[in-house]
Each structure stands twice: as C-alpha cells, then as structure tokens.
Design goal:
The chain has about 475 residues and is α/β, with parallel strands linked by helices. It folds into 3 domains: about 170 residues, Rossmann fold (3-Layer(aba) Sandwich), CATH 3.40.50; about 250 residues, N-(1-d-carboxylethyl)-l-norvaline Dehydrogenase, domain 2 (Orthogonal Bundle), CATH 1.10.1040.10; about 35 residues, 6-Phosphogluconate Dehydrogenase, domain 3 (Single alpha-helices involved in coiled-coils or other helix-helix interfaces), CATH 1.20.5. The protein has 19 helices and 12 strands. The strands form 3 sheets. A 7-stranded mixed sheet has the order 3-2-1-4-5-6-7, sandwiched between helices. The chain has a 3-stranded antiparallel sheet with strand order 10-11-12. Strands 8-9 form a two-stranded antiparallel sheet. α5 links the parallel β5 and β6. α8 crosses α12 and α14 crosses α18. The longest helix is centred in the last third of the chain and has 31 residues. The N and C termini lie far apart (about 75 Å). Bound molecules: 6-phosphogluconic acid. The site of 6-phosphogluconic acid has 13 residues, from α8 and α11.
Length: about 475
C-alpha cells in the first residue's frame, strides 16, 4: 500500500469561520482533507454540520491530524494573526518531517512571515505565508489568493489553491507572488487599498448627505448607478446595498443608526508604516487610517462640535454638477490611491528582491477579494503594455482619466472646504497629484533651512557636489564633498 492510500492531501487547522469555509471550499473540489481545531468540540461541530459535504477526516489531536496527511504534509493554519500562529507552528514542528509544508493563510504581518520562514527552514520545514481575501463568502466560494514562499512548496499546493480561487475570464485569482513574506506583503497592501477605497466612499457619502442634502435611499440609488460605470466594483455595489437597508427597529435607514466610529485590525497601519519606511508617499491609505483614528475620538468630537468654529455643511453655494463632480472626484482619488499602492509594492519588491509582477497582482485582485473592480483590468493592461512602471498616473489611460476629472475634483474640494466638510483622502490625493506634476517644488527651502540649523548641506541646480553656507559666520559657501 502506498503512503498516500487513505490519507488526506491537505489539512486545515483552525476552524473558525474563515478556516471552516476554506476547508469546505477545498473539499468541494473533491480533495480529501483533514480538519482540526484546538478545541475538539469545534471539530466535532464542524464534522456534524459539514462532514457530509466532502472527504473530511476530523482529527481530535494534532498528532492524529498530522498522521492523517499524505507526505509531504500540507497544512493550512487559519488562526488569529500574531502569537496564535507561533503557537501552532511550535506545536506542529516536532510532529513534522523534512520537506513538510506549513501554510499560514491568516492576515499575518509580513516580517513575522519572514521570521517564521527562517525558523521553519532551520527545522527542514517549508513555510508559506499566503494572503487570502474575500471574507467568509470568498473563502467558501472563491477567494483571491496571494501565495508567498518557497517555489517548490508552492508547486505542491498550486493545483489545490488555484482550484479554490475565484476565476475571472478563465484565469484563477491566484498566482505565486514571491518568496518569504511577499504574499503577506501584497495582502497587506491590498488591505491598505481597501482602507483608501472605503474612506473615499465615506467622503463621497458625507458630501452627498451634508452638502447635497440627500438621504440614504437617494444616495443608495446614486451608488447603484455609479456601479455601472468606471467605478464598478464590489465596494461600490455593497455601498448601495448598505445605504438601502431599512432598520427593523426604526424603519429608517440602518446606516443612520450605526455609530460613526470605525474600527480596524491593523493592516492599514502596517501599510502606512511600511510606506513611511520606504519613503513612498502613500497619502490615500495613510489618510484613511488617520480618518478611522479621528472617527474613534467620538467623545472629543462631540465636545469640539459645539466649541470649534467653522462653516456649517449645506449652507453654501453648490455647483449644479455637484453629484457628478463627486463621482469624478472619487474616481480620480481612487486612481491616485492605487498608483500610490502600486508604487509602494514596486519599491518593496526592489528593497526585498521579490521581483513582484505587478500586472499579475492586478490580475488576481480582479475577482474574489474585497477590492475587486473593473478598474483593475485597466491596471493589468497598463503593466502588460508598459512593463515596469514608476507610476500608474503616467500611463495614458490614467493620465487622461485624471485630466478629465480634475476640474470636477477641484470643485468638490473647494466646495467641501468652504462648507467645512473633512475630505482628507480626496484632498490629499489632489495634493499628491499636484505635487507629483511639479517639476520644481519648494523643497529647496527645506534644504536651505536644514543647512542653516544643522549644516546638513544642499545640492545646487547649477553645479556638481554638495555645499554648505556658513550662515552664522561670514555667509560664504563651501563645497563639502571635495
Ligand atoms: C479581506 C479583508 C479582511 C480584513 C477585513 C477587516 O481581504 O478579506 O481585507 O482581510 O480582515 O477587511 O479589516 P479591518 O478590520 O482592519 O477593517
């Protein structure tokens, strides 16, 4: 009898809803799968509820779980990011053999994935960090999958992963991203972009509510209409649904009784911090994180709302084209947020030697994930046509899209500012755009000041070398690199 007879091809440990749904998705493809959860009751519940759906082996201990798997063992870990992942890896390690594969499919921070890859390699275990996006439904019916790690390990799971992923135009939304932490890195940026997209939608909603004076059902209809144009995407689609939902208790719009304090689990902050480290301007995502922070200061905002002076939204002149202007501002800001996110991935790829194929990232984000959108086809086409791109804004399609939208975009920002509506993502995106298209900005003065107080030196536009002016002495300039 061969070693594989009667064994499962893959295992999932961690049967909370994401792990359970991923396991069911895998089983639905006819793959024999072992399932395990630290709390045995959960495994029993899973087997009772879903055991009939496929070739599951329910394991009550990690030993049983590992013994149920064919070699090399392929183990998906779907537990909370952070310490729980280290705990499972530590428990599994003594039970595994050389060449076995541990796959962390949670939202782990990529430096942890890099560390775990090294620790596992020291024990002969191949570790993969894979990004999985799409929430509960995606995990069950077809997520977008961003696998990172050793290529030989990926080859062992490629067939299963591509078979459970979402498919767009015949292409599965799953491709090997790169080594080490690359998969979790790309998932992190995906989440950062998700933050920016959501913030831009929230700003549009705020303007439609408080400047245009529309109610939630009317705004729902607007988003539904927008979803048939350039903005077509999962997030715009569900915005229409959330806004249209009636509250069972009050009979009014549900959104009107939801507390205006946004929570977050940390991936947006990681994305912003990473961009700061790389020196990449990432205004859209970072402002989205800050906006969630501001939303959380609910009590402070309440006090400030009666103390701090400013215009009242809705009490100013609105352009006739306001609603369509907001649509265009949303689209232009979205282009900027994606251009920034892709520039960040490009910089990280260079810094880490990941050789990321950014066109492929756009391709696997077209389906299954939270930021899935028509728009990603445009990004995919841009990379197919232009290869390594410094900035998506320089691709004719996007150059033109933003050029066409910019009058409306500027009008929205003026109107919002005059009426006192905060639009951090809209306005910082425009500032980035205006800054990026300036051949000469004001940083010459920054350099002058730095040289004045700290002798940090400056370059000249008309000469080679670096220079320092003896500001506090005789005022003469010296060359410092000669
Ligand atoms: C996904 C999502 C998911 C994330 C939630 C919540 O791709 O399926 O990005 O991974 O956990 O969107 O994130 P926040 O709680 O930070 O908003």
């Amino acid at each position: 009898m061969s070693d594989t007879a009667g064994k499962s091809r893959i295992g999932v440990t961690g049967l909370a809803v994401m792990g359970a749904n991923l396991a069911r998705n895998i089983a639905s493809r006819g793959v024999p799968i072992a399932v395990h959860n630290r709390t045995t009751a959960k495994t029993r519940e899973f087997m009772e509820e879903f055991g009939h759906e496929g070739a599951f082996t329910g394991s009550e201990s990690l030993e049983e779980f590992v013994a149920a798997l064919e070699k090399p063992r392929r183990i998906i870990v779907m537990v909370k990011a952070g310490k729980p992942v280290d705990g499972v890896v530590a428990d599994l390690t003594p039970l595994l053999d050389e060449g076995d594969i541990i796959i962390d499919a949670g939202n782990s921070h990529f430096p942890d994935t890099v560390r775990r890859t090294e620790e596992c390699a020291a024990n002969g275990i191949r570790f993969m960090g894979i990004g999985v996006s799409g929430g509960e439904e995606g995990a069950l019916k077809g997520p977008s999958i961003m696998p990172g790690g050793d290529e030989s390990a990926y080859a062992e799971v490629e067939e299963i992963l591509t078979s459970i992923a979402a498919v767009v135009d015949g292409t599965p939304c799953c491709v090997h991203v790169g080594p080490g932490g690359a998969g979790h890195y790309v998932k992190m940026v995906h989440n950062g972009i998700e933050y920016a997209d959501i913030q831009l939608i929230a700003e549009a909603y705020d303007l439609l509510t408080h400047v245009a004076g529309l109610d939630a059902p009317a705004i729902a209809a607007i988003f539904e209409e927008w979803n048939s144009g350039d903005l077509e995407s999962f997030l715009i689609e569900i915005t229409a649904k959330v806004l249209a939902k009636k509250d069972e208790k009050t009979d009014g719009p549900l959104v009107d009784v939801i507390v205006d304090r946004a929570e977050q689990k940390g991936t947006g902050t990681w994305t912003a911090l990473d961009a700061l480290g790389l020196g990449i301007p990432l205004t859209g995502i970072t402002e989205a994180v800050f906006a969630r922070g501001l939303s959380a200061l609910r009590d402070e905002r309440k006090a400030a709302s009666t103390t701090l002076a400013g215009p009242k939204p809705g009490e100013g002149e609105n352009p006739d084209s306001l609603v369509d202007d907001i649509r265009q501002a949303l689209y232009a800001s979205k282009v900027v947020a994606y251009a920034q996110g892709f520039a960040q991935m490009r910089a990280a790829s260079k810094a880490n030697d990941w050789d990321l194929d950014l066109g492929a990232m756009a391709t696997i984000w077209r389906g299954g994930c939270i930021i899935r959108a028509q728009f990603l086809n445009r990004i995919r086409d841009a990379y197919a046509e232009h290869g390594d791109l410094e900035n998506l804004l320089m691709v004719p399609y996007f150059t033109e899209a933003v050029a066409n939208a910019q009058d409306a975009w500027r009008r929205v920002i003026v109107t919002a500012t005059q009426q006192g509506v905060a639009i951090p993502a809209f306005s910082s995106s425009l500032s980035y755009y205006d800054g990026y298209r300036r051949e000469r900005g004001p940083a010459n003065l920054i350099q002058g000041l730095r040289d004045f107080f700290g002798a940090h030196t400056y370059l000249r536009t008309d000469a080679e070398g670096s220079f320092h002016t003896r500001w506090g002495q005789d005022g003469t300039e010296v060359r410092t690199d000669a």
